[in-house]
Structures are given as C-alpha cells and as structure tokens.
Amino acid sequence: TEREDDSVSKALEKELNSVDVLTITRFLQYSLVIPLKAHMEIVNNEILKMYLYDLDILGHFESLRNYFLLMDGEFSTHICDNLFHRLETVRAPEELLNYQTLHSILNGALYSSSAGTDPNANRLSFIVCQVPEKFDLYSPNVFSMLNLSYRVEWPLNLIFSMETIEQYTNVFKYLVKVRRVSYVLEDSFQLLKEASKRLGKPLLHSPQYARVQLIRHKLSHLVNALKNYITSSVLHASWEAFRDDLQDSTETMEDLFRKHRTYLKRVIFLCLLNKRSIEFYNNIEQIFRVVLRFYRHLRSKEWRLQEPALAAANGMQYYVHPRYRQILDDEVDFEKLIKYTIFLGNKMYDHGYQKEISEFLHVININGYYDDVKPVVS
C-alpha cells in the first residue's frame, strides 16, 4: 500500500542520513579503489612482462653498457684504435668524418667482438654534428663533433628517451677522450723505445732521455689511475648496483624507468660530468692538454748528439732533445695542475660529496708524492 511504501522510503532516507562521511568513504574504497588497484596490478604486470620478455629490455641495457660505456673490451679497443690511427693519417677531416669510413670502423669493431652476434648491434650508428676545417690533433676535444647513436622505437623510447641517449653519448665522448690521452702516452713510449733501439747505449746514458722517460711515466700514472677508477669504481660498480636494484621490487614500467635513470645519473656523477664537479673536470681536461702538448714536443724533433763544445765541458757526449726545455715546462705545468686536482678532490671528499673519488686520489698521490711538489730542472 501507499502508506507502507511511504514509511519504507522514510525509513531508508532516515538510515542514509544517519550514515557518516567516513563510512561512505570506506564503502567507496571497497567498491571502487580495491578493484581498480587489482586491475592496475594486472596491467602493470603485463606491461613489465612485455618489456622484459618481448622487448628484451635487459639486453638493451647491456648493449648500451657495452657500446656507449666501452665495457666490451674488443669493441672499445678496435673502435678507439682505428679512430685514433685514422685521425693521425688523414689529410682532411672529410676523409674520416664520412658515412663510409665511420661505419666501416664501426662494423669492423662489432664483428671483431662478441657484439657481432648481438641483435641490437644494427641499432648503432655514428652521427657527425659538423665537419671542421681541420683537426686540432693536440686538443682533448678533437672528436667533439662525433656522436654515437642508438636507434629506438616505441615503446622502447619510453625508457630510452632522446635525453637518455644523449646522456649516454656524452659519457661515450668523455671515455673516448680519456682513451685518446692514454693512446698518445702509449705512442710516446713507443717513440722512446724505437729511439733507444736506433741510437743504442749512448741514448740510454743520456740524462735527458732518463728525465723524459720519468715525465712520461708520471703522466701515464695519472691517466692509468683515471682509467682504472672509471672502469672499476664507476662503470662496473654502478652496473652491479643497477642489477641488484632491478632484482629488488621492480613492479612497474615506472620502476624500470626510474632505476635506469638513477643508474645513468650515478655514472654521470662519478665521471664528474655534472655541474657541481665542473671545476674538477676542467682541471683534469687541462692535464689532458699538457699530456698532448708533451706528446707534440716529443715527436716534433729527433734526438741528436750534444754540441761538441758542450760535450767537452761536460766531459762526455750524449744525446739531447731539441724540445727538452719545453718538455720540462710541461712537467712543471702538470705538477701544478695535479696538485690542484688533489686539493679539489680532497675538498669534495671532506664535504661529503664524491666520496668514491678518495681511492683515485690515493692512487695518484701514493705516499704523498705530490704533497710538496718541487720540480727539478736540469
């Protein structure tokens, strides 16, 4: 009847009015939020499976590490040595910075290493920003116009954005810079070795030859320490931390993106490529310039016998280098720069920033060698 219906409606209305806001909120959570969370968990699991199994995202992480961070030894050696050799032999930049030559070097590096079987190898290519009028062989940034690129498509570009690939490229260019400085020091060693074979004991008895070898050793010690720091404390340690992080509660694509970004930021941070480390980085680059200047002076002239008048005054005739004074100036500049580098590094460490750098500083200043630098000029 109508009276009964009215009484029931009023009772329901009264009951609804008596329900507080917290109860309604809880009902909504039970009826909407929980099913949505369950649905989102299923969707996230499927997306994560797609990245892990269908797109093999872990394989891409490893490929980027091998190529851009030069952690594939055969690939990195082949590509760097060929670039550096061609740099010294070409008559004009166009002979090196063209598609055919660069990709011949790249393909040779890929097929000479285990990267030849990598399905991601065909994603690599070189990009030349601009071709200079000539190469400045004694600049650390001689390859600044050369970028390594990695082709990605949707949905991989959600993880490997253009910004991410650019960051990888910047690390690659820095590592090539370090490798080239190491390469010229190895070539300096070969130049001195060939001179000793050609000129024999008279050269080995030369005080200048011994001093030049000592200077080369000082320069090599720093560069080798930097290479070891980058390989062990930066690249290898960051990769292991990234792998452990991936195994720890990676549930969504956002987790994957965030953990990869953290890994790449750590590499950039430890390579001193961020803004806060710019002073330390610039100082290291000045040291690179000194190394290249030493190389230029060493190779510019051949060793020759001392003038007879000077030989008579010294009581014996030995070989001298025409650029010996300039080489001694290079040593003075190097020791000033390395002392300031140690000061900056210790300052960063004392302020709790870049604690990983302490091992590098200890190696280059072992037994306090540079604590009181007093270059000796003979």
UniProtKB/TrEMBL annotation:
GO biological process: cytoplasmic microtubule organization; meiotic cell cycle; microtubule nucleation; mitotic cell cycle; spindle assembly
UniProt-listed InterPro entries: GCP (IPR007259), GCP_C (IPR040457), GCP_C_sf (IPR042241)
Subcellular location: Cytoplasm, Cytoskeleton, Microtubule organizing center
The entry's keywords: Cytoplasm, Cytoskeleton, Microtubule
An MF annotation (GO) of this entry: gamma-tubulin binding
GO terms for cellular component: gamma-tubulin complex; microtubule; spindle pole
Pfam families tied to this protein: GCP_C_terminal
Top-level taxon: Eukaryota
Residue ranges of every copy of the Gamma tubulin complex component C-terminal domain listed in the record: 58-370
This protein's record includes keyword Cell division: no
Similarity field: Belongs to the TUBGCP family.
Official protein name in the record: Gamma-tubulin complex component
Species classification: Eukaryota, Metazoa, Ecdysozoa, Arthropoda, Hexapoda
